[in-house]
Amino acid sequence: MIYLSGQRPLPQHARAATFDTRWRGLDPDQVYAYLNRLADEMERLHRELTTANTEAERIRQALHQWQSRQSAHRHHSRGSR
């Protein structure tokens, strides 16, 4: 059965997809080879997205720490005048 739910497709969905057979249908070997390539690409993109999200979170936290230090430094500098 072709994956039809409203959820995002995942690589394992492409790999597990099945299709009804027809008398003059598509070559199943080609279909499954394509789905495997598609699943591989989905996995690669998912890894890249995870890496990008992790890096973005690291940068967000570093910026927050920097802003906190700057704020504390400014507050401390004003008090010593």
From TrEMBL:
Coiled coil feature spans: 35-69
Protein name, UniProt field: Cell wall synthesis protein Wag31
Predominant place of localization: cytoplasm
Highest taxon of the lineage: Bacteria
Gene3D superfamilies attached to this UniProt entry: 6.10.250.660
UniProt keyword terms in alphabetical order: Cell cycle, Cell division, Coiled coil, Cytoplasm
Subcellular location: Cytoplasm
Pfam families xrefs: DivIVA
